[in-house]
């Protein structure tokens, strides 16, 4: 991406004239140097080519992102499933990464008279064995996500319903933990439990066929975005006007938490200030805000670094504005069950970084680290184009003993990490610091990684 970005910026500069060096100098312009930069850059030419316009230089890059994306998935294997059933603390071992190449492109692009454009963005994923530490055929012991999720969801139903489910689970030889391949967990496996649950509790899990965490990711889109083009007001370019026709969502308990703020997470308006940036994440079902941390440079290009505040996943007790996202448990995790069919799903930073220590201490095998697990986003302030990012999120399942469902044993309540992932769009050479890239190094210019491909069928 850095090369593509530099090439794009050079195209945005005047294409003729002897002052080539002056034009290239705009690459090193910071927010404070805007007036000086504009002396060497025809202002209107620049504005015409950073807005969303089929005639602009940047349009093809916006439509079909020219750089490859890579998604590295790390699973948490449960090493002591029998002991966990008896009430022991889960012992986890991180497996992977399993790396996938992602291609992204926009379709159904429709321009409207009110300075907006609508689009669907699709993606395709392809496994990259040469970049992975393992294959999709490897087996991993993880919670029986479908069974344990359904058990918690049915906790408050009449006992006879839970006893019926428990009997059905016994007949199907379902257990609290399963030994499945990476490919099955990712892309789906046949499970007769789906039909059984739908028969006992119609509508509890409104899908049929295979179950997999990423089963609908390939050739999927994240909903119909309508964003500002910047044709009339450049300060509004890329800002979301609506998502799936909605100005607000209805997942949360406060108007503020239901607001759709910021951009779609790909680019931001030019001439940014060092304060904060916002974007709407359909898969997190909410808008998110990153805060300015510091100025820097990425391969010679000035950037503003934005990071996740500790309040991002804080509960309402620690941060009252988040009360609308509750009911909550400890700080550092967000309950997304209200927008995931009431499944007991939580998102967090990897290894519960920046979370309540009680979450880390409830299991063994986690080692939260700012270098490896914190997220940040480096944006070129003059254009609003991301230059470098480290976007990582973790998916967790709340499990516990449920009275009447004997398969849940004596499991103590715990928010159990399932996997975490990092999305990048640049890779080092095979003999370079690849582990650093996946584990915690600077990643890619791809904030759209916030469109987290998780819990597709939950």
UniProtKB/TrEMBL annotation:
Coiled coil: none annotated. GO terms for biological process: cholesterol efflux; cholesterol import; plasma lipoprotein particle clearance; recognition of apoptotic cell. The keyword Repressor does not apply. Signal peptide: none annotated. It is a multi-pass membrane protein. Pfam families: CD36. One of its GO terms (molecular function) is lipid binding. It is found in: Cell membrane; Membrane, Caveola. Belongs to the CD36 family. PANTHER family: SCAVENGER RECEPTOR CLASS B MEMBER 1 (PTHR11923:SF110), SCAVENGER RECEPTOR CLASS B TYPE-1 SR-B1 (PTHR11923). This is Scavenger receptor class B member 1. It comes from Strix occidentalis caurina (northern spotted owl).
